[in-house]
Amino acid sequence: MKDSKSEKLNRQPWKPLTASYCCSSDDRAIFGNFSRCRPSKSEFSKNIGGAPPLPSFRKLTFSDVSLGSSSARINEDLAQTFGGDLYDFQMSELRGATQNFSSNFLLGEGGFGRVHKGYVDESLRAGLKAQPVAVKLLDIEGLQGHREWLAEVIFLGQLRHPNLVKLIGYCCEDEERVLVYEFMPRGSLENHLFKRGLSISLPWATRLKIAIGAAKGLAFLHGAEKPVIYRDFKTSNILLDSDFNAKLSDFGLAKMGPEGSNTHVTTRVMGTYGYAAPEYVSTGHLTTKSDIYSFGVVLLELLTGRRAMEKARPKNEQNLVDWTKPYLTSSRRLRCIMDPRLAGQYSVKGAKGMGLLALQCVNLNPKDRPKMPAIIETLESLQQLKDMAITYGQWPASTKTGRNAGYPAKERRQSGFGCKSAAVAASPRSK
C-alpha cells in the first residue's frame, strides 16, 4: 500500500469544495452532475450508475446518495443506501480495535494515509464476524481526500467478487474518514517482488496464479453494464491472502466508464508513473484499455522482478516497458531479462507466452490491446507448462540463488546468463 509521492500523477491534497470547483468536468466524471453547489466540505450529490452482471451489484441513482454538509448526514445517507452491507463504525471503536492506531500494528502508509491492523468481533456489532482487519485512516493533509474515500465506499459497498478486497465498513466522524477492509495476511505483490531482504522469491506458478487472479478482478470491473475503470492498477494495489489469491484494493481513483456512443471518459490525469497508459497521460482520455496497459506493465514486473520505473538505473533501462520490448519475442532473449531470483525455475514457453501477452497489452494503439477475457484465457493456458529453464539448459545451473542472485556485479543480470549485451541479446539473430 505504500506509494512514492514523487511517482504520483497530479494528486491534490484534500480541500473543501467551492462553487467554482465542484462543477468541473473532472468532478462530473467522478460524481455525475451535482444537484447544488455550496462551498461546504461535504457537499456532494452522487450518482454511480451501471451494474455488473451479478445480482449483488445494485444500480444507484442520484437520490440514493445525497450528501449534506455534516458527517451525520453523510452517515444517514450511506446507511440508507447500503443498509447492513457495510458497518458504520465509530472512531472510539476503531481506536480500540487497533490499540489506538498503535505503530506496532502499522501495515503501511500511502497517499491516503496510514493503514493499521486491527481486530473486530461481535462486541462491536451484532453478527460481525470475529476477524483481523486493515484500517485505513485518512490523512487530511495527504494526497488523497474525502472524494477518494467516498469513491471507495460507493464502489466497494456495491462490488463483491473473490478478486476484489472486501470492504467491511467505514467511519465518517467530524473530520475523520476511515475505511475498514478484510485483512490480507500476505500483504502486497509489490513487497514480494521488490522488498529487499526477502530471501525467498515468489515461485513461477505463484506469479502466474497472482496474474490470473488480478486479471479476473479487472475483468469483473470491465464486464459491468457500465464498465468500471480501475485507473490505478499496480503491484502495490494487488493484495494477497494466505493462499496467494490476488485481490484488487484502493478504489479511490476508479471511474465509471463511458455511456452510449461515447468512447471514453475525459478526466484529470491521475495514477502512478510507469503504469499509466501513454494516451491517457497525453490526452486525459480514459477507457478500459488504459487498465489493460497497466496490466501489461505488471506482467513485465512479474517476469523481470524490476519496477515499472527505476530512476537509479541506466537511462535506457529506467522505463521497464521501453527496456523490455526488444526481448519479449524470443525465449533466448527473454532469459536476459528474467528475474534472476527465479534461478531458472520457470517455464520457458510460459515466460514467452506471458511476455508476448504483455507486449500486446502495452501496445501504443489502445484498440490493439486484448480484452480481459482473452487475457485470462491466455494466462490460464500457461499454467500446465512444465518446461523449466534450468532443466532444459536455458539457465546456468551454477547461477547463485537467494536475495543477491543476479545482482552482485554490473550487468550480471545479462552477462551472467550468456547475454553479452543488450544490443546482442535483442538482435534479430537471437531466436
From TrEMBL:
Q: Which InterPro entries match?
A: Kinase-like_dom_sf (IPR011009), Plant_Ser_Thr_Prot_Kinase (IPR050823), Prot_kinase_dom (IPR000719), Protein_kinase_ATP_BS (IPR017441), Ser-Thr/Tyr_kinase_cat_dom (IPR001245), Ser/Thr_kinase_AS (IPR008271)
Task: Give the matching Pfam families.
Answer: PK_Tyr_Ser-Thr (PF07714)
Q: Localized where?
A: Cell membrane
Per UniProt, ATP binds at K136
Annotated region Disordered: where?
400-431
Boundaries of each Protein kinase domain copy? 101-382
Source organism's superkingdom?
Answer: Eukaryota
What CDD domains is this protein classified in?
STKc_IRAK (cd14066)
Keyword Membrane, does the record have it? yes
Q: Which UniProt keywords apply?
A: ATP-binding, Cell membrane, Kinase, Membrane, Nucleotide-binding, Serine/threonine-protein kinase, Transferase
Question: Which family does the record claim for this protein?
Answer: Belongs to the protein kinase superfamily.
This protein is called what? Protein kinase domain-containing protein
